[in-house]
């Protein structure tokens, strides 16, 4: 008796994953239906990449269940699982000694043992499909980032996957090349009938292309819904806060970082979002003062992110490891300095310990608020 295909292509129940005792995925539940296009959005560190990597067992889950097309992924042959599920990463990693065509043909000829001429014909078709018919014999160093990423997509498609996973496929690209890659993914979504999960920071694209959006936060799918539900009528607080944040920029910094390039990036980011000059200057001064007099007297490295909301509020977020150090209550001189600077200029100050990290956040609101 033949079985009817299961409707859910991917079912995840109670997925948990920690790194060095720090939980990253916390009892995550999710389903993706056959043929469905799901975009996964959410703040940095939410666990989006970890989730995708668990799906095709690039990471081993600590507990929970992953069913792919009705089968328990962890009991499947990993090769079969990965053949069923193609993955495209931020970094395209083409083989530099092979042409575009050879990159696309490699896995079908070696793993699937397809005859060379057949594999070549198909590879040429796929390259044409991603708009690179003329580049079949080019090496990666002869291709732009956007072209390399399109070859990487063709390479994944060459294995005839039923599912495609994309992890921020455009975030390593020069802005001028983002659209050509998104266009290729959009065509695939429209025409192929494949099941797709796409981690992206491109909100407009996510909204246009997806059947459903997962908003991930702190290790779970915190809210999911249609693009309209998530972008127009988010139900939960953290989703709402995320959606109204227009853009963010993030830096991993250590004591030796270069203020000069950094200041320029901050200023450009704020300028791009039409934050007025007075507040841009204040922002740069404030960040430098906090780094010099507080953070780097306490810790060796930290993650700093800056967000701008629709109302032009500038949100600052500092995450740092080590023992709990809350400058809003501590009584040493650096903390007192940081506290006075923050209270003088910022609003909505919040300090939390999240996943073992100190997280300090505040807002630099427009003056007329
Ligand atoms: N191999 C690893 N070893 C240790 N920690 C890790 C590892 N991979 C991820 N993490 C940590 O797990 C957390 C979630 O990481 P993940 O890369 O899944 O987030 P993300 O949502 O994809 O973020 P981003 O938007 O920045 O890509 C982060 O705090 C990260 O530092
Ligand atoms: Mg990621």
What can you tell me about this protein's structure?
The relative contact order is 0.10. The model has no long low-confidence stretch (mean pLDDT 92). It is built from twelve helices and 15 strands. With 369 residues, it is α/β, with parallel strands linked by helices. It binds adenosine-5'-triphosphate and magnesium ion (MG). Residues 48-49 line the site of magnesium ion.
- How far the N terminus sits from the C terminus, by CA atoms, comes to 68 Å
Mean pLDDT: 92
| Strand composition percent | 25-35%
Secondary structural class: alpha/beta
Counted by DSSP, the helix tally is 12
Please tell me what the overall shape is. globular
Gyration radius (Cα, Å) is: 23 Å
Strand order of the largest sheet: 6-7-8-3-9-10
* Low-confidence region ranges: none
Biggest sheet, in brief?
6 strands, mixed
Q: Keywords for this structure?
A:
binds magnesium ion; globular; five-stranded antiparallel beta sheet; 369 residues; binds adenosine-5'-triphosphate; alpha/beta; single chain
SSE inventory with pairings:
Layout lengths: L7 E12 L2 E12 L3 E5 L6 H8 L7 E6 L2 E2 L5 H7 E4 L11 H11 L5 H14 L15 H13 L5 E5 L7 H17 L3 E5 L3 H7 L2 E6 L2 E6 L1 H6 L4 H8 E10 L4 H14 L4 H22 L2 E9 L4 E7 L12 H13 L1 E8 L2 E8 L5
Parallel strand pairs: 3-8, 3-9, 6-7, 7-8
Antiparallel strand pairs: 1-2, 1-4, 4-5, 9-10, 11-12, 12-13, 13-15, 14-15
Helix pairs in contact: 3-4, 3-5, 4-5, 5-6, 10-11, 11-12
The structure holds adenosine-5'-triphosphate (ATP) and magnesium ion (MG).
